[in-house]
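Lecture notes, unit on protein representations.

Consider one protein chain, 226 amino acids long.
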Amino acid sequence: MNNAAGSTTSREEEIAFRILEQVLGVSIFLADAGAGNNKPDGAWTYPGGERRRGIVEVTSPPDKKLMSRWAQAKRDGLSQSESGSIPPRIGELHQVCAELLAAAWALDNIAKLRAEPADERHLFLFGRSHRVQSYFCRLSDTYEDGSFESVLDLVLPDGITDLWCRGRARREEPWGTRVWVARFQAGVGWNRYVADIDERHLPSPNASLADDRLDPQLRAPRDRSI
């Protein structure tokens, strides 16, 4: 897609790409090169003779007020926190997902995916706030007895084949992070996965929100522009 060599992914994009690569067995390149040119974030071709093409858009519900509070907390040397409670909505996780997919920010990203020719179109969601992330953790995690919360199937928007929701993440010393993720695939249903990510392969966190716990010289994100 004529990306400039050396273009890099955002931290959220790189996390999503590495999860998809582990689950799907593909290699993803940066389709938009950060140019804001209405292209999806990533694209790949499945190995084999069929040459099926997949694309993905990585996004999250906007929460500018929360990000602003966290940035101010960092400037003031205070811990970042989020207060308040969320409605549990037991047995309604499919409805939570449907409401997210119907929001204006999601519709914009869905339209971007629909505009691009592909055999598969994936939407990968992060939850910035606890209000959303707690639902994603319930989608992807097991209970103490090893069971999953029962979640009804979704009706995905036309043209969208897969929805991914990033759940809980747990640090694994020295450089690892283990991430739980839920995937709804049209015609198949829900599946849950666990992916392992090496922090050294990720871009640094947003400097205004968090300090980098890793020496920047140890970071070596992949050049996905070619």
